[in-house]
């Protein structure tokens, strides 16, 4: 049997199961990978919002990473919610020390769908300086990309130009997610060093079940990279997986609901000898 790709997920926990580590783990498993994790924060949240956050000590986040990598190992890594400069420093230091050869997907969880900033300015600077240069690909939405590029959130910037500008921060590639832009299509831009931008177009799905889409796309991309796929192939498969997961969303909750991460997995049936 082919060994599944081992994906180390460094992110916060979502008690509602739609985003964060829960979305990451589901996505990796749905695409045939094996997920391990380092928890950066605990949250009490549901489809209506976040009711509470309990951060994890930076040193213990690093300890979780070392524990996993020393024994199980990893074929790729993905980071999500890193709430402070201290946490970003701890994660970057561990990646540099014991996982520098791993493909790394950085999902810069910085700006909520409401436009609210989720991390402090000091942490934004640390993210730019310490983590982005280690990334194989960074996966910002449009507001996050503007923050990283030092643009006002209301500025009108061509997506291709914005994605290419972020390459100057030291990452190998940028996947700029287009869900925040208007239009009947969602246009994602994949910018890579020395190559023309790749524009990926998908029909926009009219749904309120879009919680955790960024986490899902990033961890699905990491799974492809962990399998040894080329970046554009990993991104295309991840985006197709996300599109179907949104189409099949179960409609749970009164607010922004979760998508259906398990759409690739059929119902389990007992064999004749087990019935």
CATH superfamily: Ribokinase
Order of helices and strands: EHEEHEHEHEHHEEEHH
Rounded Rg: 18 Å
Query: What is the number of independent domains?
Result: 1
User: What is the third-level CATH name, the topology?
Assistant: UDP-N-acetylmuramoyl-L-alanine:D-glutamate ligase
Strand order of the largest sheet: 3-2-1-4-5-6
Give the biggest beta sheet.
6 strands, mixed
The number of helical runs is 8
* Share of residues in helices: 25-40%
Keywords:
single chain; 275 residues; alpha/beta; UDP-N-acetylmuramoyl-L-alanine:D-glutamate ligase; 6-stranded mixed β-sheet; 3-stranded antiparallel β-sheet; globular
List the helices and strands and how they pair.
Elements: E1 6-14, H1 20-30, E2 34-46, E3 49-55, H2 58-71, E4 76-79, H3 85-98, E5 104-106, H4 121-131, E6 137-138, H5 142-149, H6 159-166, E7 173-176, E8 185-192, E9 198-203, H7 213-226, H8 231-247
Parallel strand pairs: 1-2, 1-4, 4-5, 5-6
Antiparallel strand pairs: 2-3, 7-8, 8-9
Helix pairs in contact: 1-7, 2-3, 3-4, 5-6, 7-8
Describe what you observe in this structure.
The protein is globular, with a radius of gyration of 18 Å. It has one domain: Ribokinase (UDP-N-acetylmuramoyl-L-alanine:D-glutamate ligase, 3-Layer(aba) Sandwich). The model has no long low-confidence stretch (mean pLDDT 93). Strands 3-2-1-4-5-6 form a six-stranded mixed β-sheet. A three-stranded antiparallel β-sheet has the order 7-8-9. Helix 1 links the parallel strand 1 (6-14) and strand 2 (34-46). With 275 residues, the protein is an alpha/beta fold. The longest helix is centred in the C-terminal third of the chain and has 17 residues, at 231-247. It has helices spanning 20-30, 58-71, 85-98, 121-131, 142-149, 159-166, 213-226, 231-247; strands at 6-14, 34-46, 49-55, 76-79, 104-106, 137-138, 173-176, 185-192, 198-203.
């Amino acid at each position: 049997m082919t060994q599944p790709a081992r994906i180390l997920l460094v992110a916060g926990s979502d008690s509602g199961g739609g985003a964060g580590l829960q979305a990451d783990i589901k996505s990796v498993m749905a695409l045939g990978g094996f997920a391990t994790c380092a928890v950066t924060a605990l949250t009490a949240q549901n489809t209506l919002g976040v009711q509470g956050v309990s951060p994890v000590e930076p040193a213990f986040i690093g300890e979780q990473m070392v524990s996993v990598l020393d024994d199980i190992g990893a074929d790729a890594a993905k980071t999500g919610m890193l709430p402070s400069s201290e946490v970003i420093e701890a994660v970057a230091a561990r990646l540099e020390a014991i996982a520098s050869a791993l493909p790394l997907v950085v999902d810069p969880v910085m700006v909520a769908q409401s436009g609210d900033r989720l991390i402090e300015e000091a942490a934004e600077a640390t993210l730019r300086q310490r983590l982005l240069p280690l990334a194989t690909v960074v996966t910002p939405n449009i507001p996050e990309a503007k923050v990283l590029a030092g643009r006002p959130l209301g500025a009108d910037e061509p997506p291709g130009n914005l994605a290419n500008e972020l390459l100057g921060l030291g990452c190998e590639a940028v996947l700029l997610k287009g869900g925040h832009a208007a239009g009947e299509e969602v246009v994602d831009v994949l910018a890579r060093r020395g190559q023309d931008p790749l524009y990926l177009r998908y029909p926009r799905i009219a749904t309120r079940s879009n919680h955790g889409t960024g986490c899902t796309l990033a961890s699905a991309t990491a799974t492809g990279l962990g399998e040894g796929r080329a970046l554009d192939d990993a991104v295309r498969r991840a985006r197709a997986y996300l599109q179907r997961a949104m189409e099949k969303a179960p409609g749970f909750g009164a607010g922004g609901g979760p998508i259906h991460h398990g759409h690739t997995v059929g119902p389990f049936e007992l064999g004749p000898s087990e019935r």
